């Protein structure tokens, strides 16, 4: 799966829309990047831009945006209510999917280095990308703002991490970093009272509330030896919260920023607010996600609520999202549309045409057409996915069989494993057709000169290996499903034992069919390489056929 990061640069311009459009045009010009949001503020004279995509593309788009901002924004004439120190004030990178914070830090530092060296702008690194503890906090770096920057740069202690230690009067300085994904999340209450909403907010937010002597509302504030108020911490780490009244909806809300989802996930914050609200005589009626949210956040929420019900987690992603939306009450104020609120779905845009998106009849007709693809490899992968799905079905049925309540988790684990296997086999349905098309393209390359012949030969060899590896992967993946089917045949719902037998036969057909594709595609290799691939495939085929036959016999003996 693709790695995805988000970038949220803040530019010191919120009034001149022409300048803002010039900056965002640079972002949109980079292939593989999706501009998600542009939020200008006149009072702050600042625009927050959000875009996302694969890391290299995002870093390139960020650099181009910073460069354009340096061209069109003049800090010598900038005034606004928000703290700032440069034309591009801050530029954080945020890991969204399939990428670690450590990797994101490396991309942030690459971006910072390029800005400093190529644009001659002083750059400081903050949060996880910081080189020193003192520079982790953005407020420390930005202290003194643009007006104090010249003096700051003259202090060796504040030498920039990248770029010259020289005052750039037009562009100022930029802060680049890597931080956790921030989710803006509001929980709806059945009250109009801001004071009561604030009480719940103070209960849950990490900072908590001021400690008082005697009466918690009117008592004298307790202070430490330095005169600072003593705080009673709230129950949720990495959460900022406040209560407010929304006139548009006629309700009060707990408005939260979840600053680290690995510390406090969305569903945990929701449940804790429910608990604290109920303790104060209030009820939660639903919630609202402001902006976008990573797919994994919604999937985790769906699994969490299914687990509370002791239901199987091995259901499609669409069902997990549906459960999350229902459980969090995300339709309370307006319809929650996953395609508009989940980052990965927004980035995907209009999905490419895939074989697996066709109806059963459509897939059959496509296979029966005059086109050589899809062929036996794609069909084998699809058969394998169907066979695995039968095992997943039996696991899901067994997880909530009457009288088996104490075994729901055991069967849920099998269903999750089955779901992972069937999803991989579905991916291989289209991958096999792509591999075949790659061979056709390679054979169509020019071959007039010696260089062209050599390049064509190399391309054919690489495409042939791909066309072998894909069906071999089908064989490997399908064989894993036999473990699920065997377990369900022996321990699952006995009323569904015939389904496990059908599943085992389907897996056998998938493995045998994929093996035939390995053999025919290996024919284009040199003899030694060809024999090695056939040997590997046949070894796997024999093992899988024996395992499938073993399950089939077991099922027959019990029918």
Instruction: Indicate the multimeric state.
Output: single chain
CA radius of gyration is: 29 Å
Structural class: alpha+beta
Order of helices and strands: EEHEEHEHEHHEEHEEEEHEHHHHHHHHHH
Task: Offer a concise description of the structure.
The chain is of the alpha+beta class and 559 residues long. Helix content is 52%, strand content 14%.
Give me the secondary-structure topology.
Elements: E1 4-7, E2 10-11, H1 17-28, E3 33-41, E4 46-53, H2 55-72, E5 88-97, H3 101-119, E6 123-127, H4 138-142, H5 149-154, E7 174-178, E8 183-189, H6 194-204, E9 209-210, E10 231-232, E11 239-246, E12 251-258, H7 266-279, E13 284-290, H8 295-308, H9 317-328, H10 338-341, H11 343-348, H12 360-368, H13 376-399, H14 408-443, H15 450-491, H16 497-522, H17 527-557
Parallel strand pairs: 5-7, 6-7
Antiparallel strand pairs: 1-4, 1-5, 2-4, 2-5, 3-4, 8-12, 8-13, 9-10, 11-12
Helix pairs in contact: 1-2, 2-3, 6-7, 8-9, 13-14, 13-15, 13-16, 14-15, 15-16, 15-17, 16-17
Task: Give a description of the structure.
- The protein is of the alpha+beta class.
- It folds into three domains: 4-178, 2-Layer Sandwich (Formiminotransferase-cyclodeaminase, Chain B, domain 1); 183-348, Alpha-Beta Plaits (2-Layer Sandwich); 355-557, Formiminotetrahydrofolate cyclodeaminase monomer, up-and-down helical bundle (Four Helix Bundle (Hemerythrin (Met), subunit A), Up-down Bundle).
- 52% of the residues lie in helices and 14% in strands.
- It is built from 17 helices and 13 strands.
- It has helices spanning 17-28, 55-72, 101-119, 138-142, 149-154, 194-204, 266-279, 295-308, 317-328, 338-341, 343-348, 360-368, 376-399, 408-443, 450-491, 497-522, 527-557, and strands spanning 4-7, 10-11, 33-41, 46-53, 88-97, 123-127, 174-178, 183-189, 209-210, 231-232, 239-246, 251-258, 284-290.
- The strands form three sheets. Strands 1, 2, 3, 4, 5, 6 and 7 form a seven-stranded mixed β-sheet that branches. A four-stranded antiparallel β-sheet has the order 11-12-8-13.
- A hairpin with a 4-residue loop joins strand 3 (33-41) and strand 4.
- Helix 16 packs antiparallel against helix 17.
- The protein starts with a strand and ends with a helix.
- The mean pLDDT is 93.
């Amino acid at each position: 799966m693709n790695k995805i990061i988000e970038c949220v640069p803040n530019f010191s311009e919120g009034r001149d829309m022409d300048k803002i459009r010039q900056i965002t045009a640079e972002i949109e010009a980079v292939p593989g990047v999706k501009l998600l949001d542009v939020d200008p503020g006149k009072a702050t004279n600042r625009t927050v831009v959000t875009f996302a995509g694969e890391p290299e593309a995002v870093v390139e788009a960020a650099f181009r945006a910073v460069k354009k901002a340096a061209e069109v924004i003049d800090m010598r004439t900038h005034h606004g209510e928000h703290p700032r120190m440069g034309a591009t004030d801050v530029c954080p990178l945020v890991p969204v999917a399939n990428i670690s914070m450590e990797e994101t830090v490396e991309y942030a530092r690459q971006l910072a280095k390029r800005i400093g060296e190529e644009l001659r702008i002083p750059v400081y690194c903050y949060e996880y990308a910081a080189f020193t503890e003192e520079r982790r906090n953005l407020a420390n770096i930005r202290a003194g703002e643009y007006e104090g920057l010249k003096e700051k740069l003259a202090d060796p202690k504040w030498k920039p991490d990248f770029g010259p230690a020289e005052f750039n009067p037009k562009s100022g300085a930029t802060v680049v970093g890597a931080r956790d994904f921030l989710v803006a999340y509001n929980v709806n209450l059945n009250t109009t009272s801001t004071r009561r909403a604030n009480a719940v907010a103070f209960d849950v937010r990490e900072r908590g509330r001021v400690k008082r002597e005697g009466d918690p509302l009117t008592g004298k504030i307790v202070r430490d030896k330095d005169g600072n108020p003593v705080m009673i911490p709230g129950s949720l780490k990495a959460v900022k919260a406040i209560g407010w009244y929304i006139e548009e909806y006629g309700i009060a809300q707990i408005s939260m920023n979840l600053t680290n989802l690995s510390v406090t996930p969305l569903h945990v914050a929701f449940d804790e607010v429910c608990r604290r609200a109920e303790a104060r005589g209030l009820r939660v009626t639903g919630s609202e996600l402001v902006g976008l949210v990573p797919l994994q956040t919604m999937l985790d929420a769906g699994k969490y609520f299914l687990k509370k019900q002791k239901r199987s987690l091995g259901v499609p992603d669409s069902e997990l999202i549906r459960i999350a939306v229902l459980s969090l009450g995300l339709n309370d104020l307006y319809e929650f549309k996953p395609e508009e609120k989940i980052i990965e779905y927004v980035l995907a845009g209009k999905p490419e045409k895939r074989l697996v998106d066709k109806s059963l009849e459509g897939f059959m007709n496509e296979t029966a057409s005059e086109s050589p693809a899809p062929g036996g490899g794609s069909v084998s992968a699809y058969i394998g996915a169907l066979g695995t799905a039968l095992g997943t079905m039996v696991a899901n049925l067994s997880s909530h069989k009457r009288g088996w309540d104490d075994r729901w988790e055991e069967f849920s684990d099998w269903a999750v494993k089955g779901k992972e296997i069937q999803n991989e086999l579905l991916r291989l349905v289209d991958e096999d057709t792509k591999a075949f098309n790659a061979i056709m393209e390679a054979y169509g390359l020019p071959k007039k000169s010696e260089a062209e012949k050599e390049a064509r030969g190399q391309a054919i060899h690489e495409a042939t290996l791909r066309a072998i590896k894909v069906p071999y992967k089908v064989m490997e993946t399908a064989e894993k499903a036999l473990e699920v089917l065997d377990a369900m045949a022996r321990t699952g719902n006995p009323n569904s034992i015939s389904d496990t037998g059908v599943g085992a036969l389907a897996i056998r057909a998938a493995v045998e069919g994929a093996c035939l594709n390995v053999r025919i595609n290996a024919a284009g290799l040199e003899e030694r390489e060809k024999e090695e691939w056939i040997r590997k495939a046949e070894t796997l085929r024999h093992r899988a056929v024996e395992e499938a036959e073993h399950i089939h016999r077991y099922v027959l003996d019990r029918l």
